[in-house]
Amino acid sequence: xxxxxxxxxxxxxxxxxxxxxxxxxxxxxxxxxxxxxxxxxxxxxxxxxxxxxxxxxxxxxxxxxxxxxxxxxxxxxxxxxxxxxxxxxxxxxxxxxxxxxxxxxxxxxxxxxxxxxxxxxxxxxxxxxxxxxxxxxxxxxxxxxxxxxxxxxxx
Length: 155
What we know:
single chain
């Protein structure tokens, strides 16, 4: 399904189905809040199991959310199956609050890759605070890779 032919609701529903097919995302409880070509908002409740010993969200959880949001932004911009090929994150403050929200956008894209950026915010008492920024390169999967994945899934 391409964004040019899908309604915004159908596009979001397709994105949510992709997220539901990711066991790790389901385990963490990630939610796709918004999705448009080249843009994504992904959210996650900060549960006790996702905190580190000082009480704030574990850096791996913050990083996961940024990485997945970047990949959605790049994939929807290029409209092909993708993976992250490079990723960098800067942690700005501890993520203390009830929920994380990652907002990502494709800065530039071609046929084979997209460069995307993301802000990760922590929400506490209805207030958003920037806790991390990330940038990544998202690469299109080649036909051979997607055919191999389909063969593995059928086996």
